[in-house]
């Protein structure tokens, strides 16, 4: 098969959509190397490259190579797709180019979430309009829709009236590095590079209202006398971040919260920018705290499970799908409940180990081989019509 991908996020996104795209592409090349994979991107990447011989990077040329590169991605790309004789085109992040249904090329789109529909006030009105137009178009025109969780499938049916028959739930995996052995010297290197303490609680994600870092800090205020372990935050933010910092200042938690993304070495180091140092950061954490109000999937939860550390997350939206039976679940609106789970992790090692022992069976659904095989099944079904 010759399969093309909207690879913008694979080349340039350093968070969830990028991690999803790269993990899927690398897994396809590893487990299905007999196919050709064409990666379409508006421009090359500074941080990510795809050197496997199964990959062919395609960038705009001619009049589309400059300021019209965005137009090429949404419309002009059609001529290239036909010229390259594709069997399938896969939009990896909610979008398909306009006119794809007229090319004779089968199309698949991955829908990660409809969070902007659930929380429209957390996005500006123009972005909401653009997302709605693009996402609805992709759902209408795609031959198949991949939803990354049952929660996302439910949202697509409920909010967009998408055809349930063409929605396939294909869970995502994460970078296999999170499950691979890690020696002490690598942990020490990363710890010293970023000036990390020997142990800490970990939060990973954009610092936005929905992801609830303020709730974590309120829980921390409740247990401050119980532990000296700090909270390490990986993620950037704007106005909400300033609100969180104001709370930290008012509660005198400045020495308890480390904003790692603001560390000069983190800003400059490729190991942080590409997340290749993250497995060592995860492995040295006492636990991951991820009490988001709403997610399409919640990849940091899966990364933490593969790392073998305890996870505190929300019992809402898709997070129980990601966390399985081994995670510790909380009401994201209850800092007190979060504080209770933190205390369990600090002082009840037997319960923690019992929960971690439940990871293995759950994670079998999220191996790279299992997840990429489910996507390949979708491709085969689409080609068979």
Secondary structure elements and pairings:
Elements: E1 2-6, H1 8-12, H2 16-31, E2 36-40, E3 55-58, H3 69-83, E4 88-91, E5 106-111, H4 115-118, H5 125-141, E6 144-147, H6 150-160, E7 167-169, H7 184-193, E8 201-204, H8 213-223, E9 231-234, H9 239-250, E10 257-259, H10 264-268, H11 270-273, H12 278-283, E11 287-290, H13 299-307, E12 311-314, H14 319-323, E13 328-330, H15 335-347, H16 349-356, H17 359-363, H18 368-384
Parallel strand pairs: 1-2, 1-4, 2-3, 4-5, 5-6, 6-7, 8-9, 8-11, 9-10, 11-12, 12-13
Helix pairs in contact: 2-18, 8-9, 8-15
Please give a quick description of this structure.
The chain is an alpha/beta fold. The protein has helices spanning 8-12, 16-31, 69-83, 115-118, 125-141, 150-160, 184-193, 213-223, 239-250, 264-268, 270-273, 278-283, 299-307, 319-323, 335-347, 349-356, 359-363, 368-384; strands spanning 2-6, 36-40, 55-58, 88-91, 106-111, 144-147, 167-169, 201-204, 231-234, 257-259, 287-290, 311-314, 328-330. The protein starts with a strand and ends with a helix.
């Amino acid at each position: 098969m010759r399969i093309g991908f909207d690879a913008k996020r694979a080349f340039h996104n350093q968070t969830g959509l990028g991690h999803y795209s790269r993990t899927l592409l690398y897994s396809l090349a590893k487990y299905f190397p007999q196919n050709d994979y064409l990666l379409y991107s508006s421009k090359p990447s500074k941080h990510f490259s795809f050197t496997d011989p199964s990959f062919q990077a395609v960038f705009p040329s001619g009049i589309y190579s400059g300021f019209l590169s965005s137009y090429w991605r949404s419309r002009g790309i059609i001529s290239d797709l036909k010229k390259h004789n594709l069997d399938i085109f896969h939009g990896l992040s909610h979008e398909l180019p306009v006119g794809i249904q007229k090319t004779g090329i089968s199309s698949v789109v991955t829908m990660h979430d409809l969070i902007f529909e659930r929380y429209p006030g957390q996005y500006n009105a123009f972005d909401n309009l653009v997302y709605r137009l693009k996402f609805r178009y992709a759902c209408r025109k795609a031959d198949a829709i991949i939803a990354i969780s049952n929660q996302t499938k439910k949202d697509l049916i409920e909010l967009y009236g998408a055809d349930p028959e063409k929605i396939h739930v294909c869970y995502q995996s994460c970078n296999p590095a999170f499950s691979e052995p890690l020696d002490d010297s690598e942990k020490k290197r990363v710890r010293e590079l970023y000036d990390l303490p020997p142990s800490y609680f970990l939060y990973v994600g954009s610092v936005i209202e929905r992801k609830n870092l303020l709730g974590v800090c309120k829980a921390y205020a409740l247990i401050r006398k119980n532990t000296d372990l700090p909270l390490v935050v990986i993620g950037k933010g704007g106005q909400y971040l300033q609100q969180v910092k104001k709370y930290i200042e008012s509660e005198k938690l400045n020495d308890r919260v480390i904003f790692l993304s603001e560390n000069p070495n983190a800003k400059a180091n490729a190991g942080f920018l590409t997340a290749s140092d993250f497995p060592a950061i995860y492995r040295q954490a006492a636990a991951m705290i991820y009490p988001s109000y709403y997610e399409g999937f919640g990849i940091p939860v899966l990364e933490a499970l593969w790392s073998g550390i305890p996870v505190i997350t929300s019992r809402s939206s898709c997070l129980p799908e990601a966390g399985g039976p081994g995670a510790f679940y909380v009401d994201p609106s209850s800092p007190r409940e979060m504080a209770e789970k933190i205390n369990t992790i600090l002082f009840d090692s037997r319960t923690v180990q019992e929960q971690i022992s439940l990871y293995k069976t759950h994670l079998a659904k999220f191996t790279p081989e299992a997840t990429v095989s489910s996507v390949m099944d979708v491709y085969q079904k689409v080609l068979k019509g």
